[in-house]
């Protein structure tokens, strides 16, 4: 049964998808960069999560649609934004960035920032990454991290 909230989420995602010009990231490469940093300090590798990939894509699309790097979203806080994509977790974090041209350069930028580095090296199990290009060709990046599970069968959000 659809609720008003899930219907609004569906409309929001569709509108953002129409407005945004697609950009590409290589999720496997990006995950290997993240896991290499984690291995350097003895942490377990993260797993690529289709739930967080979809959630991160919506956040990147939103940022590029408003031409602003932001953690804010009309969908709510980070827990509220990831839950409709099938994420069940007790811990979640997000890194956003703007203007970097590729996976390696944005990772370098995040690793040079203590707050972003803390997220990359945090006590998480799941990972998602996305990028979106605005009408000027500028890239908006999102990394999302969670400690929990991903079940796309429980998703109330449309597939990206």
UniProtKB/TrEMBL annotation:
<dbReference type="InterPro" id="IPR035940">
    <property type="entry name" value="CAP_sf"/>
</dbReference>
<dbReference type="Pfam" id="PF00188">
    <property type="entry name" value="CAP"/>
</dbReference>
<protein>
    <recommendedName>
        <fullName>SCP domain-containing protein</fullName>
    </recommendedName>
</protein>
<keyword id="KW-0732">Signal</keyword>
<feature type="signal peptide">
    <location>
        <begin position="1"/>
        <end position="23"/>
    </location>
</feature>
<dbReference type="InterPro" id="IPR014044">
    <property type="entry name" value="CAP_dom"/>
</dbReference>
<feature type="domain" description="SCP">
    <location>
        <begin position="31"/>
        <end position="145"/>
    </location>
</feature>
């Amino acid at each position: 049964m659809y609720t008003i909230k899930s219907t609004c989420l569906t409309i929001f995602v569709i509108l953002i998808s129409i407005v945004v010009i697609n950009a590409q990231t290589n999720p496997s490469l990006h995950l290997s960069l993240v896991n290499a940093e984690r291995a350097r300090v003895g942490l377990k590798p993260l797993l690529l999560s289709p739930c967080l990939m979809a959630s991160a894509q919506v956040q990147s699309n939103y940022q590029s649609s408003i031409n602003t790097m932001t953690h804010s979203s009309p969908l709510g806080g980070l827990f509220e934004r990831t839950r409709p994509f099938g994420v069940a977790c007790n811990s979640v974090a997000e890194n956003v960035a703007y203007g970097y041209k590729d996976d390696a350069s944005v990772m370098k930028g995040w690793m040079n920032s203590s707050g972003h580095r803390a997220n990359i090296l945090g006590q998480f199990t799941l990972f998602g990454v996305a990028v979106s290009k605005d009408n000027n060709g500028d890239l908006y990046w999102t990394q999302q991290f969670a400690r929990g599970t991903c079940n796309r069968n429980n998703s109330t959000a449309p597939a990206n």
